[in-house]
Each structure stands twice: as C-alpha cells, then as structure tokens.
C-alpha cells in the first residue's frame, strides 16, 4: 500500500473540515500549552505518521493475520467465524495506531520537559491524536468529495449519505482522547497500563465495523456504539485532566 | 501564540488554494461509434483469487438517432441492469434507466440529461426520491463509460479528462483516462493485442483493456476488487 494514496487528489473542503473537526478537542485538552512549539510539531508528526503507520505497519500486519486465519480456518471458516477470525486484525489496528500516537507524544513530552507532568502528558497526547485524527478525517473527506458527493447525493440516498461525516464527528475526538489517555500514562509512569487501555478502547470502537460486516448489527447500532465508546474515552481523559489540576 | 494560530490558518489556506488550482488534462474526445450495428458481449466476473462469482452482458442497439447501451450483471445476491441512450453522433448521454436488486434494497432509477443538469427520479424500497445534478458538456454516464471508451483516439500516452456522472448515487466524479500502452491480453475468448487504459478517479484507479483491432471490443476490466473477462461468442 502506497502511503501517498491517503492524500489522493486533495480537496480544500477536506482540509477545512478536518481542521474544524479537530479544533475543539485539541483546544480543550491542550489549552495552556498551545503556545509551545513542540506541541505544533506533534500535530504535524501525528498527521505525517497516520499514512505511514497504516500503510507500512497496520495493513501488512493485518495481511499476515488474514493469511493466518485463512490457513487455520479456510475461506469458508473465516466467513463463518468472522467475529472471531477478524478480531486479531481489529486488535492490531488499536495497538498500531495508539502506539504510533504515543511515540509522538513521548518525544513531544521530552521536548516540553514534561515527564512527570500529567497535564503536559494529556496535552502532548491530545496534540499527537489531533494530528493523527485530522489526517484520517482529511483522507475520509477526500474519499467522499473525490467520489463526487454533493447535496444531491443526500437528497437521493437520504441520511445514509451523511454517515461518513457523522463518523468523523466522534472519530476525531476519539483519537484525541485515546492518545491523551496513553500519554497521561506515560507521563505518570504507567505507560503499559494506559497504552493497553487506549488500544483496547480503540479496538472496541473498531469492532463495531466487524459486527456490521458479520450482519449482527445494522449501521445505526454501529454508530451508536462508536458514540458510546468515544464518550467513555473522552470522559475518562476529561476526568484525568480535572484530577490532575494544580 | 497568535502568530502560530495565524501561521496555521495561513498554511491551511495556502494548501487549500494549491489543492484547487491544479491544471488538468484536455477534455476527452470521442470519435464515431466503433460498433457498426447491434452487438452483445458476455463476460465472466472473477474475484481476486480468479474464482467465477458472476456474469455480465454488455449490448449495443440502434434506436433512431441514438444508440442504446445496455448492461446486465449478476454477482452473488446482487443483480443490476442499466440502459443508457446516447447521441449517435457525439455519444454523449441523453437519458437512462437502472435497476438494482440487492439484499434489503430494491431500486429503480430514471434520469434525463437536459441542458446543464441531469434530473434523477428514483424509487428506493417503495420510497420516491429525486435530485438534480449540475453537469458540463464534457460528461459521460457511469453506465456508458466502459462501452463508450471504445471510441477514444487510442494512442500510447493519450490522456484526457471527463466528468463522470453516477445517477444512481447523484455523484459527479472528475475522471482522467490514460492510454498506457499495448500488451497481450489472455481472456477466455482468446489472446488479443490490447490497449491498456487507466481510469483515474482521483482517489482510486481502475484498468480496462480494449482490443487494438476495431471495433475495439472490451477484453478485460479490473476494478480492483473484481475482474471482467470476455467470453467467446
């Protein structure tokens, strides 16, 4: 997979919407640190590492896991036990993406001299997550606009044509919140616990798509699940932020 | 702080402008219809592993001052059929009809190209819907694309742009067509010398092969997920 395929033919509306979607969560979690250069570099690094981590790590790992599932269960077995066979791939997406964001946050924290400062950890994580989530949103919006989407599409297909936008409304804050959690753990010396928590929440969020693919639930249920997991993740990060005040 | 925010906003604005100011290739040119009369071609639909998952039939028929380009395919639980009337001289679309039957969906779409828009009326699971999409002169309908590209001026390096209209979803897709070269193509109908043509939809690319010899039959089509291969008559 070519990382440049995530950029495709850039559309200005995608850039604008990605920036708008990411701004509230970023400003909230990183307020007080937004004047620091390393934080803005973290946003840039997060954005840069999104296509690289997906194309060079996540997709190849999922490819190998897919082949393993095929070898163990056969093609019909994978279809039959999709919820089980697809689980390692979903778990891999959580681990790869949250580890990538934590890497950026950890480097940022060192430049902020913030190791041990939990609020700095939350801010650095939020910045890394903001860049990562914004780039993902830019890619998704680009696919939608590049696919010729217009208001006429909504008139013809109904609310279904807005799902891509709705998903980004919670997926972007999720990226910010989950990365903030993992970086909080790094700053407080409990890196593995919080990284696993963030990766677990991320995998739980993505598992909704697998449930839909297996025909267990419909689209509304998948979106409701996404909102619920995001509320839990962002709520937890907010609570940690208020607890680490002062 | 303000300087940084200003810098960020400026960066987004500059990138936006850069994204919107890219010069594209020339408009797609079409010669006369390469087919001489009514014709039909059958294809197998193969998955990535080469397993046969369905069949497709493309046909052309004369209707007064128009050509009717029809396509019907069946793969798994999805059945689709379409019929697009195109101007016999310019091969540009006039009106069309499409039916889609899939699990949970039964849709019929009727549409007419008039002036600078296409008016679409759909019946989706018993619910009536309508929309209008603005179009330019340089357009092709999604359901005529593969047959109509047989009329492009085949030459290595030929590159041209068109606006692809997908009435079933009310989509407008900026599309670049590139003739990448000649190569041997093996399909169930035989081995042919073919033109390899790339369809660049911006966010994705597809490949289609046309016979070098007129009437430039479509030999093979690869959309990334499935492949259509020409069967013997």
Write up this protein.
The complex is a heterodimer of chains A (246) and B (233). Chain A has nine helices and no strands. By secondary structure, chain A is mainly alpha-helical. In chain A, helix 1 (12-30) runs parallel beside helix 7 (163-187) and helix 4 crosses helix 7 (163-187). The longest helix of chain A has 44 residues, at 37-80. In chain A, 47% of the residues are buried. Chain B has 233 residues and is mainly beta. In chain B, 10% of the residues lie in helices and 56% in strands. Chain B has two helices and 15 strands. Chain B is globular. The model of chain B is unreliable at 13-21 (pLDDT under 50). Chain A binds chain B through residues 8-12, 15-16, 19, 34-35, 37, 40, 142-143, 146-150, 152-153, 155-158, and chain B through 1, 4, 8, 12, 15-20, 22, 120, 122, 129-133, 164, 166, 169-174, 201-203.
């Amino acid at each position: 997979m070519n990382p440049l395929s995530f950029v495709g033919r850039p559309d200005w509306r995608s850039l604008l919407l990605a920036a708008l979607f990411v701004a509230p969560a970023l400003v909230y979690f990183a307020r007080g640190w937004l004047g620091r250069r390393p934080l803005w570099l973290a946003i840039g690094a997060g954005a840069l590492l999104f296509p690289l981590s997906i194309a060079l790590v996540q997709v190849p790992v999922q490819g190998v896991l897919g082949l393993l599932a095929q070898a163990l269960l056969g093609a019909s077995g994978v279809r039959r036990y999709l919820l089980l066979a697809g689980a390692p791939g979903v778990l891999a997406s959580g681990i790869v993406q949250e580890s990538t964001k934590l890497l950026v946050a950890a480097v940022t924290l060192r430049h902020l001299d913030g190791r041990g400062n939990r609020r700095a950890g939350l801010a650095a994580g939020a910045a890394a997550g903001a860049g990562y989530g914004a780039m993902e949103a830019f890619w998704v919006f680009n696919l939608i606009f590049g696919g010729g989407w217009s208001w006429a599409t909504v008139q013809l297909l109904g609310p279904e044509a807005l799902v891509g936008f709705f998903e980004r409304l919670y997926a972007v804050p999720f990226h910010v919140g989950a990365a903030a959690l993992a970086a909080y753990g790094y700053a407080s010396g409990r890196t593995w616990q919080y990284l696993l928590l963030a990766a677990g929440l991320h995998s739980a969020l993505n598992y909704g798509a697998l449930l839909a693919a297996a025909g267990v639930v419909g689209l509304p249920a998948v979106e409701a699940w996404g909102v619920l997991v995001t509320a839990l993740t962002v709520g937890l990060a907010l609570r940690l932020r208020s607890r680490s005040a002062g | 702080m303000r300087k940084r925010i200003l810098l960020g906003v400026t960066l987004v604005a500059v990138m936006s402008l850069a994204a919107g100011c890219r010069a594209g290739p020339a408009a797609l040119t079409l010669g006369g219809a390469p087919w001489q009369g009514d014709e039909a071609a059958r294809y197998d639909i193969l998955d990535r592993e080469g397993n046969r998952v369905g069949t497709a039939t493309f046909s052309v028929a004369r209707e007064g001052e128009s050509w009717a380009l029809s396509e019907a395919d069946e793969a798994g639980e999805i059945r689709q059929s379409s019929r697009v009337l195109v101007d016999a001289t310019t091969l540009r679309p006039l009106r069309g009809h499409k039916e889609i039957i899939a699990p949970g969906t039964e849709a019929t779409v009727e549409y007419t190209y008039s002036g600078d828009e296409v008016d679409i009326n759909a019946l989706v699971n018993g619910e009536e819907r309508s929309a209008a999409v603005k179009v330019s002169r340089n357009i092709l309908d999604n359901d005529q694309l593969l047959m109509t590209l047989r009329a492009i001026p085949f030459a290595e390096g030929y590159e041209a742009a068109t606006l692809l209209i997908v009435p079933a979803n009310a989509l407008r897709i900026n599309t670049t067509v590139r003739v990448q070269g000649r190569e041997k193509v093996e399909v169930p109908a035989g081995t042919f010398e073919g033109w390899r043509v790339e369809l660049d939809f911006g966010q994705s690319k597809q490949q289609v092969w046309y016979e070098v010899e007129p009437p430039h039959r479509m030999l093979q089509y690869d959309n990334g997920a499935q492949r259509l291969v020409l069967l013997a008559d």
